[in-house]
């Protein structure tokens, strides 16, 4: 007899300032050097930022923030609650955000990832990102950052 699997009720919404406390809780659980509340507020005030949440039954599971300019964008932050990782939610959130960026003419997304963060690098590679360069001493602890890019034809 097969076990019944409950459908996951996933939705997306725009990340607003009213969501910051919930996002900060996830951020602080997830990163050694988390973003501050001010950094989130400043990002959300920027008109060239696309910020989205992924939710399950109205509970925030993760968030993504991308800054765009012309036909390219920088993925500033993407995170899924540690207890919800490896379930495809990050991929779903990125795909949702990518479609929004494509609608406004973005063809390339760039990001920086710690050279030591193999899990994140693997996630980005699975999405189609490729390393294009290295930024020496990018992080406050002197660690290098890999610069990665994904390019896509503007087809949605």
Q: How large is the count of helical segments?
A: 4
Radius of gyration: 16 Å
Number of DSSP E strands: 7
Task: Based on the coordinates given, report the CATH architecture.
Answer: 3-Layer(aba) Sandwich
| Element-by-element helix/strand order | EHHEEEHEHEE
End-to-end separation: 40 Å
Overall geometric form: globular
SS strand fraction: 25-35%
Summarize the main sheet.
Answer: 7 strands, mixed
Q: Count structural domains.
A: 1
- Report the helical percentage: 25-40%
CATH superfamily: Gcn5-related N-acetyltransferase (GNAT)
Per CATH, what is the topology? Aminopeptidase
Structural classification: alpha+beta
Tell me, what is the CATH class? Alpha Beta
Poorly predicted tracts of residues: 1-5
Mean pLDDT: 92
Side-by-side strand order of the widest sheet:
1-2-3-4-5-7-6
């Amino acid at each position: 007899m097969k076990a019944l699997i409950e459908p996951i009720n996933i939705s997306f919404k725009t990340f607003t300032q009213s969501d910051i406390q919930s996002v900060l809780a996830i951020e602080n659980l997830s990163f050694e050097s988390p973003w501050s509340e001010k950094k989130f507020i400043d990002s959300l005030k920027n008109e060239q930022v696309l910020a989205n949440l992924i939710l399950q039954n109205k509970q925030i599971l993760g968030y993504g923030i991308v800054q765009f300019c012309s036909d390219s964008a920088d993925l500033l932050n993407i995170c899924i609650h540690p207890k919800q990782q490896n379930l495809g939610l990050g991929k779903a959130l990125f795909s949702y955000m990518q479609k929004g960026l494509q609608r406004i003419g973005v063809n390339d997304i760039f990001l920086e990832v710690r050279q030591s963060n193999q899990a994140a690098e693997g996630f980005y590679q699975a999405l189609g990102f490729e390393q294009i360069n290295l930024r020496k001493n990018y992080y406050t602890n002197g660690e290098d950052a890999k610069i990665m890019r994904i390019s896509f034809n503007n087809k949605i």
